[in-house]
Amino acid sequence: MSDGDTLNDFTPEAAEPPRVVVLISGSGSNLQALIDAQGYDELGGGKIVAVVSNQPDAYGLKRAKEAGIEAVALPHREYDSREAFDGALIKVIERHEPHLVVLAGFMRILTPRFVQRFYGRLLNIHPSLLPAYQGLNTHARALADGVSEHGCSVHFVTEELDGGPVVLQAAVAVAEDDDEASLKEKVHAREHLIYPIAVRWFLEGRLRLEAQGPTLDATPLPPQGLRLSHQDAAEELDEDPEE
Ligand SMILES: Nc1nc2c(c(=O)[nH]1)N[C@@H](CN(C=O)c1ccc(C(=O)N[C@@H](CCC(=O)O)C(=O)O)cc1)CN2
Ligand SMILES: NCC(=O)N[C@@H]1O[C@H](COP(=O)([O-])[O-])[C@@H](O)[C@H]1O
C-alpha cells in the first residue's frame, strides 16, 4: 500500500475484508457497537483488526480482547511530546495496513502529521450536533445553554479539532429534567446507531471524502451531513418517537 492511499479505491468484492483499526481512550461502548455490527455482518464486510488505546486501563481494551481483537495499550504519558506519541501510534496502526481508522472516544488531539497520514480514511464520533459544541464537556455546555436539541455527529477528521466535514448526525430532545448523565445516555444510544452506519457506508465504498467534501453514492452531503430521523432512531431503539 503506497503512502497516502485513500483506500476508497479498494473494491467491496476485494479478496479480503477491509481492515479497520479503532482508537479508544475509555469505556468503548462505541467500539462495542462496531464489534456488534461486525458480528451481524452490518459493517460493510469490514474486520476490526486492532484496537489501540492511549489509556492502558481503558475498559474498551477488555472489550476488544473478549471479541478476539488485538488490543494495544500505547500510553501517551510515556512519550515526551505529542509528535513522538503520534509517531509511535502511526507505526502501530500501519502494521495493520487499515482501510479505515476509527476514533471512538479517543481523547487525544492528533497532530497534522497523523491526520495527513490517514486523511480521507479517518472518522470520529463527536457528542454534539456539530458545528455546535466542539471540544470537550459537550453535554454540560448544552444543558448550561438550555438548548432544546442536542445530539451526535460522525465526521471525517481534519487538522481542525472537531471541524472536519460532517457525514451523519442524530438529534435528541433535551428534557426539562435532563441532567448530564441522562443526556449523555440519550446521546450514546444515538451514537451506537449512527457510527456503524457511517463506517458501513465507507467500507462499502459509498462514502468518500472528495476534494469538494464528503459524498455518499457520489452525491455531495449537506454541510451538516445527513440526519438520522427521530422516527428511524426510535424504531431502531424501540422507543416512542414522540418522546
Ligand atoms: N486533529 C484532530 N484531532 C482529533 C480530532 C479532530 O477532529 N482533529 N477529534 C478528537 C476527538 N475529540 C472530540 O470529538 C476530542 C478529543 C480530545 C480533546 C482534547 O482536548 N484532548 C486533550 C486531552 C484531554 C483528556 O485527556 O481528557 C489533549 O489532547 O490535550 C478534544 C476533542 C480526537 N482528536
Ligand atoms: N471529543 C471526543 C468525545 O468526547 N467523544 C465521546 O466520547 C464518548 C466515548 O464513549 P465510549 O468510550 O463509550 O465509546 C462518546 O460519547 C464520544 O462521542
UniProtKB/TrEMBL annotation:
List the Gene Ontology MF annotations in alphabetical order.
phosphoribosylglycinamide formyltransferase activity
Boundaries of every Formyl transferase N-terminal domain copy: 19-198
Enzyme type, top EC level = transferase
Q: Name one GO cellular component term.
A: cytosol
Q: Where is this site: Raises pKa of active site His?
A: 162
Instruction: Tell me which CDD domains the record gives.
Output: FMT_core_GART
| Reactions the enzyme catalyzes | N(1)-(5-phospho-beta-D-ribosyl)glycinamide + (6R)-10-formyltetrahydrofolate = N(2)-formyl-N(1)-(5-phospho-beta-D-ribosyl)glycinamide + (6S)-5,6,7,8-tetrahydrofolate + H(+)
What the entry lists under HAMAP family is as follows: PurN
For this chain, the family text in UniProt reads: Belongs to the GART family.
This protein is called what?
Phosphoribosylglycinamide formyltransferase
The species this protein was found in:
Bisbaumannia pacifica
